[in-house]
Write a structure and sequence with these properties.
The protein is an alpha/beta fold. It has 2 domains: about 270 residues, TIM Barrel (Alpha-Beta Barrel); about 90 residues, no CATH class. It has 14 helices and 12 strands. An 8-stranded parallel beta barrel has the order 2-3-4-5-6-7-8-9, surrounded by 7 helices. A two-stranded parallel ribbon has the order 1-10. Strands 11-12 form a two-stranded parallel sheet. Strand 6, helix 6 and strand 7 form a beta-alpha-beta unit. Helix 1 packs antiparallel against helix 10, helix 7 runs parallel beside helix 8 and helix 13 crosses helix 14. The protein is elongated. It starts with a strand and ends in a 6-residue tail after the last helix. The mean pLDDT is about 95. Bound molecules: 3-methyl-2-oxobutanoic acid (KIV) and zinc ion (ZN). 3-methyl-2-oxobutanoic acid (KIV) binds next to strand 6 and strand 7.
């Protein structure tokens, strides 16, 4: 099976989010958790952006030894020099350098031409390659770059020494089919593509970041860039936990990874707390409702057999288990389930009465608590 390299950018793209900024010691704590989770590359920061971020990348390079440490730079010599200095203590250091390749980036952001972009890409990669052993090139806004020109830039970056070529859907524009075709186009039209690994870096502006990353992997990408809880610029990046669990669920996606999935929920909570960034309750895999069942029909099914409404065993991702939540939409099976948990044995008639009382309370309060249940069951004929 082909290895899929998991490139985590929680500490760079994720940390760019307003309010998520971390100090270097906090970044180091998350880096230790990422290393233990099993990611292959940690993008630790953008060293030229601030003295504290330089310190973060240096500190992480000094202490994290089982993971490649990556620093971001623009295709600018000064950026590359600062990134290389920050990575000095890394056992495996990587510079991630690149430039915009779409028409709007070339024209409006860079006031440049296609010819010049190719030259600048080549120069940046060569320059970085003289400073570190491993260089990754990104073609910013590749999602909106025409495939023919993208192939030209990618070929040039590889011939200049890039061993990883990142194809970001920077604005989250592509449909999965389009993004998959883009990766296939590069696989089939870049003559030296066998000398590099193709990476995906998808943003979630249309809610398609994970779908696009999977389409890229199916088309031949072997590195995926992602973040814990999907945090990142604007609507975020591809979420690590989603990609990994999709691969685990769908065995026809024949790539392997080294993520210890039992550590997913713990690291999700750590990142959320440290970055002050709550996880939406209905977030796939890591939301508080991801394994919670509240409608009567679903609860009855789950109580009979968990797999009727769950495709992932909660323990596989480090959750304590499935939850049966009691609301006014719950059924008798769920109420009986909770009665047993609290030590009440109800016969058919008692359950019927308890359920009637329960609905009266549940219609009044949004959240049924244990004290409500004790009151309901105490007023019902129960058997010890
Ligand atoms: O989204 C993007 O294009 C990026 C690059 C800097 C890799 O974050
Ligand atoms: Zn990005």
């Amino acid at each position: 099976m082909d290895k899929l390299f998991v490139f985590d950018t929680t500490l760079r793209d994720g940390e760019q989010v307003p309010g998520c900024q971390l100090k270097s010691d906090e970044k180091l704590e998350i880096a230790f958790a990422l290393e233990s989770l099993g990611v292959d590359i940690i993008e630790a920061g953008f060293p030229i952006s601030s003295p504290e971020d330089f310190k973060s990348v240096s500190l992480i390079s000094e202490y994290i030894k089982n993971t490649t440490i990556c620093g971001l730079s623009r295709a600018v010599e000064e950026d590359i020099d600062v990134a290389a200095d920050a990575l000095k203590k890394a056992t495996n250091g990587r510079i991630h350098t690149g430039i915009g390749t779409s028409e709007s980036h070339i024209k409006f952001k860079l006031n440049s031409t296609r010819e010049e972009i190719v030259e600048r890409a080549k120069h940046a990669v060569k320059y970085a390659r003289n400073r570190v052993a491993e260089v990754e090139f990104y073609a910013e806004d590749a999602g909106r770059t025409d495939n023919e020109f993208l192939a030209r830039v990618v070929e040039a970056a590889i011939s200049a020494g890039a061993s990883i070529v990142n194809i970001p859907d920077t604005t989250g524009y592509c449909l999965p089919e389009q993004f998959g075709e883009k990766i296939s186009y590069l696989v089939n039209n870049v003559p030296n593509i066998d000398k590099a690994i193709i990476s995906t870096h998808c943003h979630n502006d249309l809610g398609l970041a994970t779908a696009n990353s999977i389409a890229g992997i199916l088309a031949g990408a072997r590195q995926v860039e992602c973040t814990i809880n999907g945090i990142g610029e604007r609507a975020g990046n591809t979420s690590l936990e989603e990609v990994v669990m999709i691969i685990n669920q769908h065995k026809h996606i024949t790539v392997s990874h080294d993520i210890d999935t039992k550590k997913i929920i713990p690291i999700s909570s750590t990142v959320s707390e440290m970055m002050n960034m709550p996880v939406q309750p209905n977030k796939a895999i890591v939301g508080t409702n991801a394994f919670a069942h509240s409608s009567g029909i679903h609860q009855d099914g789950v109580i009979k057999n968990r797999q009727t409404y769950e495709i992932i065993d909660p323990e596989e991702v480090g959750a304590t288990g499935s939850e049966i939540i009691l609301t006014a939409r719950s059924g008798k099976a769920a109420l009986n389930f909770h009665a047993k948990k609290l030590g009440y044995i109800l016969d058919k008639e008692a359950l019927k009465i308890a359920y009637k009382n329960f609905l009266v309370v549940a219609d009044k309060v949004r959240c049924i608590e244990q004290s409500h249940l004790h009151d309901i069951f105490k007023n019902t004929k129960v058997y010890a």
